[in-house]
């Protein structure tokens, strides 16, 4: 099953944080409203791409500023259409969650798509979006690096980077999604079957870049993530899957504004708040605020694996279940579960199919 490009956390920020609008090259017009209360606006998370489906559309309603959750929009009719009038329907499988038929179709580079949504007799649609071909990723790599926390404490870890280029010079704007996976190994397993678990997480950071204005269409050393030795990520085996897509200038401007708003969240004291409009609108009321963006993407991906041996020169904290004075426990059965059972830490016992033996 393909993974949605927008995370749930980003959805909540779209619905709840009403940031200042920054204008990038005049691509997106700010909403010139007087009120900062955009409760009950339709929030759309939607993406299709050229990898196998099903594809997902999430619909919800925004809540008042400061509310921790949004309200799913149920009972909608959702369809992705082509200029030839072909409609690919989405079925509601859970409140506010709509899926396509994975066996019926997949996005094709060079084809234009439009998202159409009907809610209680009101019709919403996106602009027509072209599925652009994406150049391949040149490399994903890491470097050992120490960084300081806000409390001036030293973190030991790795910075992960991506390099890419477009020899055809047709791609000027890039977007990445990265998915971490790692092993969880407890220090004193009583049962061997509970020694190793696996966990994963999709990055919440918006990763975009442009080569516009550069002499060469090359992205070099774009940082994707920083992983410290705290926790389990680098303790045994770590993997990062990087998904790269070519986007257009309009999408780049939109995500630049969203990125700016999320980075400023929590310090909005004297900033005038406006919603960030995407590419979806009410066909009968152009003034209605619709939050979110319909993405049409071609995806190139690359995965990197990093073992504990690869980063042995990092400064790892002493294992939390190991006594500095007494050494290993004489009887691990008396240790807390966090020391003996990997499932305590939220991982799964099932090894991912891409994991090395």
Give the strand tally: 19
Q: Indicate the mean pLDDT.
A: 85
Helix-strand sequence: HEEEEEEEEEEEEEEEEHEEEH
Q: Tally the helices: what do you get?
A: 3
Poorly predicted residue ranges: 1-36, 266-272
- In one word, what is the shape? globular
Helices and strands: which structural class?
A: mainly beta
Q: State the helical fraction.
A: under 10%
**What is the alpha-carbon Rg in Å?**
23 Å
| Percentage of β-strand residues | 35-45%
Major pleated sheet: 11 strands, mixed
Give the distance, in angstroms, between the N- and C-terminal Cα atoms. Answer: 23 Å
Your description of this structure?
It is a single chain. It contains three helices and 19 strands. With about 350 residues, the chain is mainly β. The strands form three sheets. Strands 1, 2, 3, 4, 5, 6, 7, 8, 9, 17 and 18 form an eleven-stranded mixed sheet that branches. A hairpin with a 6-residue loop joins strand 1 and strand 2. It starts with 7 loop residues before the first helix and ends in a 17-residue tail after the last helix. The N terminus is likely disordered.
Which SSEs are present, and which pair or pack?
Layout: H1 8-16, E1 42-49, E2 56-61, E3 71-72, E4 77-81, E5 87-94, E6 97-100, E7 112-119, E8 122-126, E9 129-130, E10 137-148, E11 154-165, E12 173-185, E13 196-202, E14 207-210, E15 218-228, E16 237-247, H2 249-264, E17 280-282, E18 290-297, E19 300-307, H3 337-340
Parallel strand pairs: 1-18
Antiparallel strand pairs: 1-2, 2-3, 2-6, 4-5, 4-7, 5-6, 7-8, 7-9, 8-17, 10-11, 11-15, 12-13, 12-14, 12-16, 16-19
